[in-house]
C-alpha cells in the first residue's frame, strides 16, 4: 500500500495534466494547479493524531519526510458553542485552528507544502504574506533545513514578524498590502534560487489545508454538517475544504448533499462578496483594502474563480461583515463560550448571525465555523 | 462502569482523608490535598482525543459537565527535536503545551478544576496568577457560567490580561509579584462568595495537569522516558506528572524505574534549586525574584515539599539557568527545529545542555521536555 496515492497534477481551468514528481508552480495557462490521487484502495484513516492520518490523500511520498517536518499539526477540536447556538436556534460548532504549531491554520499548508518541496529538492522558499502564512512557512522551512524569504506588510501583526525572525528566515517589510509584498517577492525570484510558495502558486499548500474538511467529516462520524463558514482572504482553506468534500464523496466516506460553503469577508475588503453577488466568475481588485481582520485583507485572490465555484456548486453564499461587529462577536464569544477567537474567526460568528437573521441558515441546522487562528496572537487589537 | 473512579481526597502530609464530594481547599493541617481513586477496574483509555480520555482517573463524575466545559484540551504532540538531540547525543522530545486553548498548559488545570467546581456548586472563583493560569481559569469559568476574580502582577504578559478582560472576568493588577497578588485575593475571599482556586489550594487543578504524565506514557507506547524536564514555578505540573506516574505504576500501565524528574528554574528565582541542593524539605522565600521566564517567578511555592519529594523519590534533580541562556536557546530551537518555545520551555533546553555537559544525562538517554506554552504569547520579549 503506497503511503501517498498521488497520481498527477491537473489544471482546473484548461485541464492539462502535469507530472506530480517535478517541481511545479502555475499551469502554463496561468491557473493554479490541483493534486489528483488514485483514490482506489484508499482506506479510512487510523493513523496518528495529526493531519498525517490522511497521508494516502496527501502528496508526500516518504514517511521519513513527514517524520522530519511534522510538528504534530492537525486534528484540532470541534468545540460546541452551546450558548450562541442555542440563542440562534442552531447547532454551532467551532473548529479551533488556533491549536496548531504557529497558532494558525496556515501551519497545515506549511507542513504539507514544505514537506513536499523538501522531497522535490527545494532548498529555499519565498512568499508574500499577511503574517501568519509567512510565519508558518518560515518555521517549517527552518525545520526542514531550508532558507526562507518572507515579505509582509509593515502593519502585519508583530508576533508574525518575530516568528519569521526567530526562525532565521529573511523578513522583508513592505509599505502597502499583500499584493505589494507579492511584487517584492516576484523580483527576488528572478535572480535567486528560491521556490515560489505564494498562495496557490504551488499545488501542495492547499493539500494541507483540505485536511480541515476531512477532519470535520471524521469528527462528525463521517458525515457533513449543513453549512461550513470560512473567513476568506486568499481562500485556500475554502477551496481545500471543497476539494476534500469532493474527494470524500468519491471515496464514499460521505454521502448526500455537500454542505453549503460560506465565504466571510470584511466590508473593508470584500472582492469575493462583490463578485458573488454580481454573478461574476472572477473578482475585481479591491481598492484601499482595510480591516481589523488582517489575515483576510486580500484585494484580489488568485484563486477567485475556484472560491466562487465552490460557493456556487454547493449552494453556498458570501457575506461581508463590519469590523465593529467582528470585535463585538469576539468579546461576546469569549464571555459566553470561554473561547478567544481571532478576529477572522469572530467574523464567522458575525456572518452566522446575519445568515440566521435573514433565514439563509434554517432553524435547527448544524453549522461549522472555522476559527483560523488563536486570539492570543493579537494583543492590543481591542484597545 | 463509573465515569470517574474518584474515591476520596487525602492529605499527603498528615494522612487525613476527606469526602471528595464536598468543596475542599487545604487540609486542616495546612497542606494541599490530593485526589485518590479506586484504581481497580480502571481501563486503558480509548476515548476522545483530549485529556478527558483519562476520565476514569479524573475527578469529574458527570460526562455532561465535561461536555459543557471542555474545549478539546490535551493530547498535545510529542515533537522530536532531531537536531538538538543529535548534537547532544540523546533522544530529545518536546511535549508542546502551546497547542491547547489559551496557549498554555494551564488550560489542563483550569478545564478539570472548573468542571469539578461547577459540579460541586461553585458560582465564582478567585486566584492570584503570573498570567497564564488566571487567563485559563477566567476563560473556562466564563464557559462554565461562573464569575472570576483574577489578580496578577502589573508586569504580567499583556495578552494574559486581555484574556481575563475579554472573558468578562474581573482583573486586578498588583504592584509586586504573585505572592502580593495572593494577598489581594485572600482579602476578597473573606467577604465574597468566591471559591479559592489558588495554586494547590483546591485538589483538582493538579488532576488536570497530571494528564501530561499519562499522555507522555501513552504516546511512547505505554512506557516512561529516562528523564522528564519541567520548568518549575508553582510546580503543580511536576507534582501532577509524578502523581500520574505513581498511579500508572499501580495500574500496571508502566513498569520499571520511574523517569528522573528535573525541576528547572531561572537563576533569578530558584527557591527549589536552593532547597534541593541544601537538602532542605521546604523552600525559603526568594527575595527580589526576577526572570524573563515570567511564568516561573514564584518566590515560595506552597507545594515545595511535594516538588522536592518528587525530585528525590525519582532520583531527579533541580537546575537553575540564566535568562541569557534561555533566550539563546529559544532562538536556537526555532532556527534548528522550527519550534517557537515559550521562555519557560526554552529554559528546559538550557537545563538539558547543562545536565548533559556534566554527565547527569547519559549518552543515548531519552529525555522529554515540557514546553509549557506557546512562544507566540510573548511578542517583544526578545527585543
Account of the protein in words:
- Chains A, B: Its EC number is 4.2.3.1.
- Chains A, B: GO terms for molecular function: L-serine ammonia-lyase activity; pyridoxal phosphate binding; threonine deaminase activity; threonine synthase activity.
- Chain A is α/β, with parallel strands linked by helices and 383 residues long.
- Chain A has a domain at 78-104 and 204-377: Rossmann fold, CATH 3.40.50.1100.
- Chain A has twelve helices and 13 strands.
- Chain A has helices at residues 63-69, 82-88, 106-119, 132-143, 158-166, 178-191, 205-219, 236-251, 271-278, 304-313, 323-337, 343-357, and strands at 6-10, 17-18, 34-37, 78-80, 91-96, 124-128, 147-153, 170-174, 195-196, 227-231, 260-266, 317-321, 366-371.
- Chain A has a six-stranded mixed sheet with strand order 4-5-13-10-11-12, with helices on both faces. A four-stranded parallel sheet of chain A has the order 8-7-6-9, sandwiched between helices.
- In chain A, helix 4 packs parallel to helix 5 and helix 11 packs across helix 12.
- Chain A is globular and about 55 Å long.
The overall average pLDDT of chain A, rounded, is 96
Low-pLDDT windows of residues of chain A:
none
Helices of chain A, by number, come to 12
Shape of chain A: globular
- The CATH topology of the domain at 78-104 and 204-377 in chain A comes to Rossmann fold
Question: Structural class of chain A, please?
Answer: alpha/beta
N-C termini distance of chain A: 54 Å
Helix content of chain A: 25-40%
For the largest beta-sheet of chain A, the strand count, sense and barrel status come to: 6 strands, mixed
The chain pair with the largest interface is: A-B, 49 and 49 residues
What string, H for helix and E for strand, traces the elements of chain A in order? EEEHEHEHEHEHEHEHEHEHHEHHE
Q: Strand percentage of chain A, roughly?
A: 15-25%
Task: Give the total of beta strands of chain A.
Answer: 13
Please give the CATH class of the domain at 78-104 and 204-377 in chain A. Alpha Beta
CATH architecture of the domain at 78-104 and 204-377 in chain A: 3-Layer(aba) Sandwich
Rg of chain A, alpha carbons: 19 Å
Oligomer: homodimer
Main sheet strand line-up of chain A:
4-5-13-10-11-12
Amino acid at each position: 500500500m503506497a503511503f501517498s496515492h498521488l497520481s498527477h497534477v491537473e489544471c482546473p481551468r484548461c485541464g492539462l495534466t502535469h507530472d506530480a514528481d517535478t517541481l511545479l508552480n502555475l499551469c502554463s495557462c496561468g491557473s493554479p494547479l490541483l493534486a489528483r490521487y488514485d483514490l482506489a484502495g484508499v482506506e479510512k484513516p487510523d493513523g496518528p493524531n495529526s493531519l498525517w492520518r490522511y497521508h494516502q490523500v496527501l502528496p508526500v511520498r516518504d514517511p521519513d519526510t513527514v517524520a522530519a517536518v511534522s510538528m504534530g499539526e492537525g486534528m484540532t477540536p470541534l468545540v460546541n458553542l452551546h450558548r450562541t447556538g442555542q440563542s440562534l436556534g442552531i447547532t454551532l460548532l467551532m473548529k479551533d485552528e488556533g491549536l496548531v504549531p504557529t497558532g494558525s491554520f496556515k501551519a497545515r499548508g506549511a507542513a504539507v507544502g514544505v514537506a513536499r518541496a523538501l522531497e522535490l529538492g527545494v532548498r529555499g522558499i519565498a512568499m508574500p504574506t499577511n503574517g501568519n502564512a509567512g510565519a508558518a512557512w518560515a518555521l517549517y522551512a527552518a525545520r526542514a533545513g531550508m532558507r526562507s524569504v518572507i515579505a509582509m506588510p509593515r502593519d502585519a501583526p508583530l508576533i508574525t514578524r518575530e516568528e519569521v525572525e526567530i526562525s532565521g528566515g529573511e523578513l522583508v517589510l513592505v509599505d502597502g498590502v499583500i499584493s505589494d509584498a507579492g511584487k517584492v517577492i516576484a523580483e527576488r525570484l528572478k535572480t535567486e534560487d528560491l521556490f515560489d510558495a505564494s498562495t496557490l502558486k504551488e499545488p501542495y499548500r492547499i493539500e494541507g489545508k483540505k485536511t480541515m474538511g476531512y477532519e470535520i467529516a471524521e469528527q462528525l462520524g463521517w458525515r457533513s454538517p449543513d453549512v461550513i463558514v470560512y473567513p476568506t482572504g486568499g481562500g485556500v482553506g475554502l477551496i481545500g475544504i471543497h476539494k476534500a468534500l469532493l474527494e470524500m464523496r468519491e471515496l464514499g466516506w460521505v454521502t448526500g448533499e455537500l454542505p453549503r460553503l460560506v465565504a466571510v469577508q470584511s466590508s473593508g475588503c470584500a472582492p469575493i462578496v462583490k463578485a458573488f453577488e454580481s454573478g461574476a466568475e472572477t473578482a475585481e481588485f479591491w481598492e484601499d483594502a482595510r480591516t481589523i481582520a488582517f489575515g483576510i485583507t486580500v484585494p484580489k485572490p488568485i484563486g477567485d474563480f475556484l472560491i466562487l465555484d465552490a460557493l456556487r456548486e454547493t449552494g453556498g453564499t458570501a457575506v461581508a461583515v463590519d469590523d465593529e461587529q467582528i470585535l463585538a462577536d469576539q468579546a461576546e464569544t469569549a464571555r459566553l463560550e470561554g473561547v478567544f477567537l481571532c478576529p477572522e474567526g469572530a467574523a464567522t460568528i458575525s456572518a452566522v448571525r446575519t445568515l440566521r437573521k435573514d433565514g439563509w441558515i434554517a432553524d435547527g441546522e448544524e453549522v461549522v465555523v472555522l476559527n483560523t487562528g488563536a486570539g492570543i496572537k493579537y494583543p492590543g487589537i481591542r484597545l
